[in-house]
Amino acid sequence: MVKMIAVKEAQNKILNMGKMVGTAKVPILDSLGLVLAEDIMSDDDIPVYDNSAMDGFAVRAEDTKGAEQSHPVRLNIMGKDIAAGKMPEQDIEQGCCVPIMTGAPIPGNCTAVVMKEDTKITDSKTLIYKQCEKGENIRYRGEDIKKGDKVLKKGKKIYPADIGVLASLGKDLVPAYKPPVVGIISTGDEVVSIDSKLEAGRVRDSNSYSLAAQLKEMGITYFRYGIVKDRKRFMEEKIREGLSQCNILLLSGGVSVGDYDYVKDTLLGLGAELVFWKVNQKPGKPLLFLTYGDRLVFGLPGNPVSVMVCFEMYVRPLIKKIMGDSELFRPTIRARAAHDFKHKGDRTNFARVILAQKEDGCYFSSTGMQGSGILTSMAKADGIAVFDETEAGNIKKGREAEVYLLKTPGRIQCSCR
Ligand code: AMP
Ligand code: MG
Question: What is the whole-number distance in angstroms between the Cα of residue 303 and the centre of ligand 1?
Fold first, then answer.
């Protein structure tokens, strides 16, 4: 008899195996969503010159003293206007101003820029309708980033704004932790490709698509190795191929106790080492996890919901860890049951739920039939509510539970969080 382990224990065993795959200098845009493997220092002051934050007139702030709508100050226009990318021809003299565009360098002696909207040109003079403070509308050299600053820290996840910062620092290659490459194999004599006509006894291969989509959502490179029949010989071939190309291999189906469930024995026969088989949970009880050298192999129970839930609760956190991410799990919220839920107190139950914000807080309700073959129960879900084995029995209406958020808030109100 194989000992069934608890969800937390299974998660710990898996995460303990999560070692970095290595680091790489990645083209800047490909680094989005990865984690920095080094501190990013600046070689420059940013901006590298004092410049105008507005289209308007460069002035000496003291020359605008007392200017207001009913009493404009008159300043002489001096020299050519300064466009972005041009250098000023001369310093500003007392009582003078020069037209300047956003991003253009500030001329000498100039201590402020008056917005165009607060000026009017008459003859060769400019009427200034607003008194300026020193420094107004000037962006000073190094005010954003100073040369030598540590701008982004090692271990930081890269978001779109970081890409912008990296670009402004001139980093076309970004040092990041390499994400793992993941292989997907579907098993089952009844499983057919998605372009096949459905007949009695046939099931279209949805698992390799939902898994590929879950990986794609994470920005992970994957290979789909197709469908393999429930024959050890065929399985061996595909598994070998997958192990030679991938850091993590995901097999779906064939891990239960059926007469044709050969995945575990095939892997053991190839020399893989068993870490655990069977977790005290629903769905996904026959979850299998093995190592093969530095490769990690999941045998995911074939039911379409089990596959996706096991990916969320076990595979995704492992990939996140390997990528150096500090947030391994989906964000969670505490929410209350909108109705009674069936729950056997002896195992963890992952319920697919819809979230709704009510006046007195956030509530979850069932997506409908919860069978592990009901894939639409997953498609409707905003999140996965966890009723663990410490819960004595059915979950009564109003009871609080932790809900893992599968979708970014939108319909799920932010106030839930
Ligand atoms: P198994 O884990 O092999 O016993 O399969 C459990 C259930 O999942 C069976 O009803 C299978 O037909 C179904 N199943 C297995 N593999 C797939 C797949 N790739 N896509 C959709 N359903 C599958
Ligand atoms: Mg099968």
Answer: 5
The one-character DSSP state at 151 is E
Beta strand pairing status for 348-358 and 383-387?
Answer: antiparallel
pLDDT of 408 over the 90 cut? no
What's domain 23-44+149-177's superfamily in CATH?
Answer: Molybdopterin biosynthesis moea protein, domain 2 (3.90.105.10)
Pocket test for ligand 1, best of 225, 261, 303, 310 (most atoms within 8 A of CB): 303
Residue of 207, 208, 263 best suited for mutating to test ligand 1, as the one with most atoms within 8 Å of CB: 207
Ligand 1: atom nearest CA of 254 is 3
Taking the model in full, what pTM does it have?
Answer: 0.91
**CA separation for the pair 63, 69 (Å, rounded):** 16
Q: Is the CB of 371 under 6 A from ligand 1?
A: no
In this structure, whether the domain defined by 51-139 belongs to CATH 2.170.190.11 is answered with yes
Q: Where are the beta strands (DSSP E) in 170-302?
A: 173-177, 182-187, 191-192, 203-204, 222-228, 248-252, 273-277, 281-282, 288-292, 295-300
Q: Average pLDDT over the chain, rounded to whole? A: 95
Mean per-residue pLDDT for 226-243?
97
Chain segment 342-354, per-residue pLDDT in tens: 998 889 999 999 9
**How many whole angstroms separate alpha carbon 214 and alpha carbon 68?**
61
Q: Where are the domains of the chain?
A: 7-21+179-322, 23-44+149-177, 51-139, 332-405
Which residue owns the Cα nearest ligand 1 atom 23? 302
Q: What is the CA radius of gyration of the chain?
A: 31
Q: Could you identify the atom of ligand 1 that is nearest to the CA of residue 206?
A: 20
Q: Which helix (H) or strand (E) holds 75?
A: strand 73-77
Distance (angstroms) between ligand 2 centre and the Cα of 263 equals 9
Cβ of 383 closer than 6 Å to ligand 1, yes or no, is no
Q: Would you say domain 7-21+179-322 falls under CATH 3.10.290.10?
A: no
